[in-house]
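Quick one:
INPUT:
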């Protein structure tokens, strides 16, 4: 490998681990990758070989309209993906290995999409593949120089094991951080994670108990959630990538039960792993119970307001959505969170959840 390419690989590898550790960002990584190719437009994206569609999880150099056009239509007619769905994981390739260039020139994808963004070819690598669903890194480019493109595809081959290691770590961390359920169980609040089309992915013990008791919420035989509240149901129908935009926070009440539907923060790993797109939080009137404080020393006890903030953070809400959920200002929520950190001796939301889970 030429010295200049080796240096680029080392620099980009450092950025992969820097993004993993929060010292830089995945956006910075893609922005830097762009500079290796003429008119480079780099993307992390997923593709479902069974459904014949996919979407861009994160991109650099693409206008919002171009990214939306790919997600809504051109992912379904991308002529490279048939071969990409079966190529070896971790092997960087050029577009001509997916489809001869003369054949690409005959496609709608080339004429209506690639040319519109100033590109004519690409290099790419499959980072991981599970059950027909692949997660990929690609740079679209105006270069059709096969030799030059192959050299850059080799860079992706060198980066692939580091990317796979980083994303495997992220996946394990996401699993470890899913502390919202036991934490909310500890304070008597129900939590139901939802995917597309009201599909229930999972729920905590408190939610299961409320459903058993008959709280105006049920699950159909096909696994979809029903709530006896028109406003919440309207928002439930809007969940999913192809649905109408979901309000960040939507609340309703039936009897002594308060429902709050929230859109969860989405990132590229959520898109690939098809994790929940929203969550329904169920709370009985009478407020948060303080059983959680039984596991804390006297000077660590949280107030009712602080328990609400901690439980909302644990359920996957951002601090801004937590403030909306609790009918307080963002500054007040941030002040509560600082107090919680100080009492419990932690300095991050992840550490907070781990501290509170038994």
């Amino acid at each position: 490998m030429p010295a200049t390419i080796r240096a680029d690989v080392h620099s980009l590898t450092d950025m992969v681990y820097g993004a993993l550790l929060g010292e830089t960002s995945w956006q910075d990584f893609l922005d830097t990758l762009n500079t290796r190719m003429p008119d480079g437009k780099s993307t992390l994206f997923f593709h479902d070989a069974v459904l014949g569609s996919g979407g861009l999880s994160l991109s650099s150099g693409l206008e919002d309209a171009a990214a939306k056009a790919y997600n809504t239509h051109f992912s379904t007619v991308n002529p490279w993906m048939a071969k990409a769905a079966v190529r070896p994981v971790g092997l960087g390739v050029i577009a001509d290995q997916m489809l001869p260039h003369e054949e690409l020139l005959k496609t709608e994808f080339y004429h209506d999409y690639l040319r519109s963004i100033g590109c004519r070819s690409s290099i790419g690598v499959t980072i991981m593949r599970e059950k027909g669903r692949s997660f990929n890194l690609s740079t679209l480019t105006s270069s059709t120089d096969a030799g030059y493109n192959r050299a850059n595809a080799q860079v992706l081959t060198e980066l692939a094991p580091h990317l796979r290691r980083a994303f495997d770590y992220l996946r394990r961390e996401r699993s470890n951080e899913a502390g919202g359920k036991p934490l909310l169980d500890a304070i008597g609040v129900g939590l139901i994670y939802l995917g597309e089309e009201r599909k229930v992915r999972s729920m905590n013990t408190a939610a299961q108990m409320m459903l058993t008791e008959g709280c105006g919420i049920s699950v159909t035989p096909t696994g979809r959630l029903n709530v006896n509240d028109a406003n919440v149901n309207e928002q439930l129908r809007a969940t999913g990538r192809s649905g109408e935009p979901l309000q960040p926070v939507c609340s309703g009440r039936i009897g002594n039960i308060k429902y709050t539907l929230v859109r969860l923060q989405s990132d590229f790993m959520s898109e690939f792993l098809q994790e929940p797109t929203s969550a329904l939080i169920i709370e009985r009137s009478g407020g948060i119970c303080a059983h959680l404080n039984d596991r804390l020393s006297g000077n660590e006890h949280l107030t009712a307001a602080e328990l609400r903030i901690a439980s909302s953070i644990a359920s996957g809400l951002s601090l801004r959505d937590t403030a909306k959920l609790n009918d307080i200002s963002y500054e007040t929520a941030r002040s509560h969170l600082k107090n919680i950190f100080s009492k419990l001796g932690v300095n991050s939301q992840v550490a907070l959840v781990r501290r509170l889970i038994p």
